[in-house]
């Protein structure tokens, strides 16, 4: 039977999922953003099992550098790992206004990240 977790269990699980590596926290945060409302007790058990791993071992699994083996080769663990690895779907903007805004944002990011020639002088320049 697949029922969602009650709010108290969900809160405890979120607290348990806080990690020491920012990269792991980003995966966990994205997972809860997308699946919190539909998380089942079986998935919660799989997530708890993953949270027992060290930060580096967890990151290796999340980045698919390694695959689950041994006691991690359980249905619940593999399912949660798949959900955590799945990248969000990016849909192109549908309206012309939204497309133009997205193109402007992309252009702004490109301009901010491009290398500009240095025009100012440093204290080490000869006078």
Describe the structure.
This protein has helices at residues 7-16, 22-35, 41-51, 55-62, 75-85, 96-113. The chain has a domain at 7-85: DNA polymerase, domain 1, CATH 1.10.150. It has 127 residues and is mostly helical. 57% of the residues lie in helices and 0% in strands.
Give me some keywords for this one.
127 residues, mainly alpha, DNA polymerase, domain 1, 6 helices, extended
Average pLDDT taken over every residue: 82
CATH H level of the domain at 7-85: which superfamily? Answer: Flavinator of succinate dehydrogenase
User: What name is given to the CATH topology of the domain at 7-85?
Assistant: DNA polymerase, domain 1
Number of strands: 0
Class based on secondary structure composition and strand pairing? mainly alpha
Query: Which strand-content bin applies to the residues?
Result: under 5%
Provide a concise account of the structure shown.
57% of the residues lie in helices and 0% in strands. The chain is mostly helical and 127 residues long. The model has no long low-confidence stretch (mean pLDDT 82).
Please specify the SSE layout and strand pairing.
Blueprint: H1 7-16, H2 22-35, H3 41-51, H4 55-62, H5 75-85, H6 96-113
Helix pairs in contact: 3-5
